[in-house]
């Protein structure tokens, strides 16, 4: 109730649920695990609810592209917790190179370098996309995926349905 401050714009409790802001991949790319930048969460596209135990800095975003197909499809929603350190096989959101959008990939640790920093790969599920390697590429993990929401996609069929779910009736050809 009342106006939201910048601090309240991040995840908040609503009953037994946590309210999570749904942000764009561009907003997620500007998100940092190390600084308090809740201004990025100030104008979410929508709010999602979950019963998971997440940090107040958690956010949701919509997936895009084909790099994580078939498990993640265009338009799926993921909830990301920046405070959770990824474990082998986890899915993560990362900032890659100079791109201004965040990417989703599978996390694969590769051991420690000479300064005891963890080297890792970000692996696509679709083999048509390249692996990203932390010791070669400019990459920073933003957060670990805590939840994946997949939506049923209705596809048009030859019986006359369409992708919006409306029924379309086709006239039968006349017999001659």
From TrEMBL:
A Pfam family hit: Peptidase_S24
Peptidase S24/S26A/S26B/S26C domain location: 41-145
Domain of life: Bacteria
Region named Disordered: 154-176
Protein name as it appears in the record: S24 family peptidase
